[in-house]
Amino acid sequence: NTNDDYDITVIATPLRQSIEILETILETGRSGMLFDIASIKSPIKELLKEISDKGMKVTSIHPMFGPDTDLLTGKHVVFMNIDSHGTHLEIMKLFESTTAQMIEMSIDSHDYAISYVLGLSHIINIAFSKVLHDSGEKKDEFSQVSSTTFKDQIEVARRVSQENPNLYFEIQHLNSHSMQTIEELNRVIKEITDAITLGSEEDFVEIMHAGKKYFEGSKA
């Protein structure tokens, strides 16, 4: 839309389309405030900076919930300061009447955190579901002997499996921090595998203790 008679422009499209839209805005200019809601900021970081350098009012936000969310209690919205106009502070005012928790963060810190918060949690559940699929067993056979842990994990994995796979690919592939997180996951799986293969109960217990230590005093 070439009409520029808007106070706020929101780019709420898949990331690859958001790049195209931001490139167009960079060329044509925009008089009102604008922001994207992309899950990953690495691919658009430079574009946003260039838009800001041209004097446009721009910020970047990430609502940490999907479109099916009704109540924002306990939900987080991350705001990134891009320009020198304090545009992110103006956009934060739009959420003042809600119960959402507003978090200010740099773009680089955001993508690093997202590689764990979304990237790691997604990939573990995607792998869990694929292993179950490849087992060739029927779902009801597992459910007959299901444990509490299995039931909890199944519920999370089921939700992940119903999400947009193209978006989830973007979250992994387009985040410059993703491979480091995946390599960490592979390293830890090898540590666990080695402990089991070598029969080292001490190493296995140490791995579990490290996990327990992380959660001690944690609000997560």
Walk me through what this model shows.
The protein has helices at 15-28, 45-53, 87-92, 107-135, 139-144, 148-161, 165-173, 178-197, 201-215, and strands spanning 8-11, 33-36, 58-63, 76-80, 101-104. By secondary structure, the chain is α/β, with parallel strands linked by helices. A 5-stranded mixed beta sheet has the order 1-2-3-4-5. Helix 4 (107-135) packs across helix 6 and helix 4 crosses helix 8. The longest helix is centred in the middle third of the chain and has 29 residues, at 107-135. It is elongated. It starts with 7 loop residues before the first strand and ends in a 5-residue tail after the last helix. The model has no long low-confidence stretch (mean pLDDT 92).
Main features:
single chain, 220 residues, alpha/beta, five-stranded mixed β-sheet, 9 helices, 5 strands
Assembly of the depicted chains: single chain
Poorly predicted runs are none
Order of helices and strands: EHEHEEHEHHHHHH
Largest sheet: 5 strands, mixed
Envelope shape = elongated
Name the beta content range.
Answer: 5-15%
Mean pLDDT: 92
Structural class: alpha/beta
How far apart are the termini? 42 Å
Helix content range: 55-70%
Number of distinct beta strands: 5
| Rounded Rg | 21 Å
Task: Kindly report the spatial arrangement of strands forming the biggest sheet.
Answer: 1-2-3-4-5
Q: Number of helical segments?
A: 9
